[in-house]
Amino acid sequence: MRNTSFASMHCSLAQSLELIGDWWTPLVLRDLYLGLNRFDQFVTDLGISRNLLTDRLATLVDGGLVQRTPYQQNPVRHRYELTEAGQELVPILMALTAWGDRWATPPAGQPIRFTHKTCGKVTTPTVGCSECGEALATQDVVPSPGPGGRTAPGTALIASVLGLEPQAQ
Q: Which keywords belong to this entry (predicted)?
């Protein structure tokens, strides 16, 4: 179970972590992307407890990342699939997997490869600029205040680092 909630933090990263910020959720999302879609498949693949999986799936459904539809009536059983929001998260998980391949590779080697359908080549997923497509590196990006930027829980000091004046709450 989670010990901390980020729901009150004024930060898009914190709000994202509120939805996906536990150890099991990215693995459930990965399994959905790879084609698993039934409760028992997740239990078997991940070795996750049924109670914990029930909680994680409910959080994903409530957060709009996964939809649940019945495929059997007696007893009622559900199939799960990624929503548009869930599908947009998959490339981020691919990039995290690529980071793991570089910095935390399992002893037997890279467990999965990604092939880009367009060019047919095995690819290493990266995070790129939405404008020019160039891969992003920390030294090449300058953070600046957004329209919702303010001093608030989760950004108490970040706002001043970005040059925002403290605002009354």
A: DNA-binding, Transcription, Transcription regulation
| Structural domain includes residue 26 | yes
Number of domains in the chain: 1
**What's the pLDDT score for residue 110?**
92
The pLDDT > 70 percentage for the chain reads 95
Residue carrying structure tokens 């605002």: 167
